[in-house]
Amino acid sequence: MTLPYKHTKIDISKNTQKEPWFLAINPNGRIPALTDTFHDGQTIRLFESGSIMQYLISRYDTPSHRLSFPRDSREAVEMTNWLFFMNAGVGPMQGQANHFTRYAPEYIEYGVNRYQNETRRLYGVLDKHLADSKGEFLVGGKCTVADIAHWGWVSAAGWAGVELEEFPHLKAWEERMWARPALKKGANVPDPYKLKELLQDKEKMEKYAAESRKWVQQGMAEDAKKNAERSSK
């Protein structure tokens, strides 16, 4: 889809996502979030990546179906399966693996093992699916929102302490995705995508994790304080 759009860089290290203007779009204070002009001419808000992707293909990817399939097709159902697999599985589990591996104030073996192993299990599901289907992408032989939804997580496997080499079919899929010019174009908004480069340098990776750990812990402390104030009222 070649839609015109405007983007706003959200600096999560400064808690921009917790500012009132952003909370009016996503009351959960998380990225991504989107506003659009709806059919009635009024602004509509969208949050949660799966919801955003479903809206975009429903509104703007018909009848071309460049990133989706006709609504009543078997492929559309399968695509939705994998989209929600990311939203309910890979994203939450790998997100926690990221936290315990990079952001926790101390090493907690149980947390690291629990979420790294669950991320590996989910990657194994994806790897087997790609092997069994003999396709280059997750569904129907073409790149869809199901692939795009997973790529951001899979490309960052090393940040969660997971080696993508363990999953050859998934690794090959990630490389195919990264070779797509449109995906690279999107990944470089609002800033150049440097995580792949970072993951190749252990010293830089540990330095970046240490810097990130500070503002993650500060944000958690601020949230805890607000929760305590709210519960005391």
TrEMBL record:
Cross-referenced PROSITE patterns: GST_CTER, GST_NTER
Domain GST C-terminal stretches: 72-205
Pfam families registered for this protein in UniProt: GST_C_3 (PF14497), GST_N_2 (PF13409)
Domain GST N-terminal stretches: 1-64
InterPro entries linked to this entry: Glutathione-S-Trfase_C-like (IPR010987), Glutathione-S-Trfase_C_sf (IPR036282), Glutathione_S-Trfase (IPR040079), Glutathione_S-Trfase_N (IPR004045), GST_C (IPR004046), Thioredoxin-like_sf (IPR036249)
Family per similarity comment: Belongs to the GST superfamily.
Taxonomic path: Eukaryota, Fungi, Dikarya, Ascomycota, Pezizomycotina
Top-rank taxon, per record: Eukaryota
Coiled-coil ranges per UniProt: none
Protein name as catalogued: GST C-terminal domain-containing protein
